[in-house]
Design goal:
The complex is a heterodimer of chains A (269) and B (405). By secondary structure, chain A is of the alpha/beta class. Chain A is built from twelve helices and nine strands. In chain A, α2 links the parallel β1 and β2. Chain B has 16 helices and 14 strands. In chain B, the strands form three sheets. Chain B has a six-stranded mixed beta sheet with strand order 3-4-14-9-10-13, sandwiched between helices. A four-stranded antiparallel beta sheet of chain B has the order 1-2-12-11. In chain B, α3 crosses α14, α10 crosses α11 and α14 packs across α15. The chains are: A alpha/beta (269), B alpha/beta (405). At the A-B interface, α5 and β6 of A face β2, α1, α8, β11 and β12 of B.
Chain lengths: 269, 405
């Protein structure tokens, strides 16, 4: 059983939803980012999405664009992001890590080498924003052959015709993007999320995580009642932007994570 | 490889060989698939084609002339040089050819709002123009750096009723404007038509924009036939994203005797880190919905392009150009800022035509080649735009040179 499967199965048995947290690797710098990464599981994160910085994050809002720039300015590279996962795995064998980003840095690194190294350092899944199923052969197929899950985004624009195509080769979990827009944009109503999950359920048995626009423990709790996972990204990344020092960034992100975890874990209680 | 293989694409997935494709976020996939279907239907609809022909003739002013540049020819003392006068189009460049096609498609699809990115501002002006003509609200994304150096075009867009959104992210140039336009599109999926200005982006844009621009080559073929009774020996056009070049080249790709030359912006030289020559100085990658040659570092991060002409200041190139480069049907060369400026001045003084700095790159390559070619060699240069927008840039450059002297 993969780490992602195991984690979602365990949480299902406990009767609660997963807190999925996103941070950008290398933001605000390698060391602080690694500290945040290592601290997230204890602060209640069940699954970690680790952003691979790219100069042109077309699907991201301002918060993650700025996080990307901070990381790149601090010298983050794809090789360093893999190194970060390697260091994380020394102390943690159970929390799944999903790398999230855009295709070009991987394309440049070399798909074959990337897949091999990602597997070796303990990456569990990939979310590549600009690789729709039409381009499965490039990365999804080799990644899955190596035992790395390929997680797809479904969105309010994914209709019944398109959905089977998107879900066909999805693995790990399904990430429902609850609003048409960039990351950090306005949030969807619980009514909308409820309907969307019901629709997805007719097509897949995979765990469904919901993201985009979820910022507070209250919002997270509301979504946790409906879904298998709740993704929070921009709100955490904003804490890094606002911090006056790397130390403060670490402590502020981890305290928000704890508060979110409380919301998510208590949601169905 | 047989010549017919030079016009193969794209295939159903939008691929020209290994280039092109649809590398976009899932939110946009239904939209680009829908656009491809609608464009296929429009292309086969005589009513749509008739409308297009009407606006090309009565609004843009086509056909524009194929002009024998007699004094430039004499000056070079070799090949016979012709200008395809795209700068005489309404709005002063080739960009409007594409905008008219896309706005007609947007109307046909019932879209209520246009968005576009612009670099030099020529595509922004052309988009604002058709938006006004068809009564659609329009938002233009433009890099803050470009707004600074293209004030006249910014004002023109405002006069035409467009809203201009300055983009400060990244380097504040064309690629950042395109990122921001994509973010708008992904947010306003219901009612918005994204009017991409060059032969790049996800399928069907590269093919669709090429098709709307291919009237340049079609007219050139007929006009040269009328004047000289035969095909050209060579074609020269500048390439940023590459829409005027694709427009001129496409009709001739299968004519083996026609030598085709694309001119990239060499900036301070392709051996420096200040240029915009994606084919001569980049490697394949994926950006803005397509796989193509990109300026990027070893980590796959997109690097800044530089050119004196804002319209060529883009770190990528249309995927069909990448394909034509790999199969060696088109020769891609580069021209530096200084060479382009020299050609700019030569064309002003010899022909009484003030060319755009973009087009000046093509002119510079023509001036380089023509002296070594026989007098019966027929060369067509795409004069893709007029240079009024570049007055400030040229003035600044001349002032800086005087200071140095």
């Amino acid at each position: 059983m993969s780490r992602l499967e195991q984690r979602f199965a365990d949480l299902k048995a406990e009767g609660r939803s997963a807190l999925v947290t996103f941070i950008t690797a290398g933001d605000p710098g390698y060391d602080a980012s690694l500290k945040i990464l290592k601290g997230l599981p204890e602060a209640g994160a069940d699954v970690i999405e680790l952003g691979m910085p790219f100069t042109d994050p077309m699907a991201d809002g301002v918060a993650i664009q700025l996080a990307t720039l901070r990381a790149l300015e601090a010298g983050q590279t794809l090789a360093k992001t893999l190194q970060m996962v390697r260091e994380f795995r020394v102390g943690n064998q159970t929390t799944p890590i999903v790398l999230m980003g855009y295709y070009n840095p991987i394309h440049r690194f070399g798909v074959e080498q990337f897949v091999a190294e990602a597997k070796a350092v303990g990456v569990d899944g990939l979310i590549i924003v600009d690789l729709p199923p039409e381009h499965d052969a490039e990365l999804a197929t080799p990644a899955q052959a190596a035992g790395i899950d390929f997680i797809r985004l479904t969105t309010p624009t994914t209709d019944d015709v398109r959905l089977p195509r998107v879900l066909e080769r999805s693995s790990g979990f399904v990430y429902y993007v609850s609003v048409a827009g960039v990351t950090g944009a306005g949030s969807a109503t619980t009514e909308h999320v409820k309907e969307a999950i019901a629709c997805l359920r007719r097509h897949t048995d995979l765990p469904i995580s919901v993201g985009f626009g979820i910022r507070t423990p209250e919002q997270a709790a509301a979504i946790a009642k409906l879904s298998d996972g709740v993704v929070v990204g921009s709100a955490l990344v904003d804490k890094i932007a606002q911090a006056k020092s790397p130390e403060q960034a670490v402590s502020d992100v981890l305290s928000l994570c704890s508060a979110l975890a409380e919301g998510v874990h208590g949601a169905r209680g | 490889m047989s010549q017919s293989q030079y016009r193969p694409g794209p295939d159903a997935n939008g691929l020209f060989g290994a280039f092109g494709g649809r590398y976009v976020a899932e939110t946009l996939m239904p939209l680009v698939l829908d656009l491809a279907r609608e464009y296929e239907a429009a292309k086969a609809d005589p009513e749509f084609l008739e409308q297009l022909a009407y606006f090309q003739r009565d609004y843009i002013g086509r056909p524009n002339p194929l002009y024998f540049a007699e004094r430039l020819t004499e000056h070079c003392g070799g090949a016979k040089i012709f200008f395809k006068r795209e700068e005489l189009n309404h709005t002063g460049a080739h960009k409007v050819n594409n905008c008219i096609g896309q706005v007609l498609l947007a109307k046909r699809m019932g879209k209520k709002r246009l968005i576009a990115e612009t670099g030099a501002g020529m595509h922004g002006v052309a988009t604002a123009t058709v938006a006004a003509r068809f009564g659609l609200p329009c938002v233009i994304y433009m890099g803050a750096t470009d707004i600074e150096r293209q004030q006249a075009n910014v004002f023109r867009m405002k006069l035409l009723g467009a809203e201009i959104v300055p983009v400060t992210a990244g380097t504040g140039t064309l690629k950042d404007a395109m990122n921001e336009a994509l973010r708008d599109w992904v947010t306003n999926v219901e009612d918005t038509f994204y009017l991409i200005g060059t032969v790049a982006g996800p399928h069907p844009y590269p093919a669709m924009v090429r098709d709307f621009q291919s009237i340049i080559g079609k007219e050139t073929r007929a006009q040269l036939h009328e004047k000289e009774g035969r095909l050209p020996d060579s074609l020269v056009a500048c390439v940023g994203g590459g829409s005027n070049a694709m427009g001129l080249f496409h009709n001739f790709l299968e004519d083996e005797s026609v030598q085709i030359i694309g001119v990239e912006a060499g900036g301070h030289g392709v051996h420096t880190d200040k240029h915009a020559a994606s084919l001569n100085g980049g490697v394949p990658g994926v950006l803005h919905g397509n796989r193509t040659y990109l300026l990027q570092d070893d980590d796959g991060q997109i690097t800044d392009a530089h050119s004196i002409s804002a319209g060529l200041d883009y770190p990528g190139i249309g995927p069909e150009h990448a394909y034509l480069h790999e199969v060696k049907r088109v020769e891609y060369v580069s021209i530096t800022d200084d060479e382009a400026l020299d050609a700019f001045h030569a064309t002003c003084r010899l022909e009484g035509i003030i060319p755009a700095l973009e087009s000046s790159h093509a002119l510079a390559e023509a001036i380089k080649r023509a002296p070594n070619l026989p007098k019966d060699h027929l060369m067509v240069v795409c004069l893709s735009g007029r240079g009024d927008k570049d007055m400030q840039t040229v003035m600044n450059h001349m002032a800086a040179q005087e200071k140095q002297a």
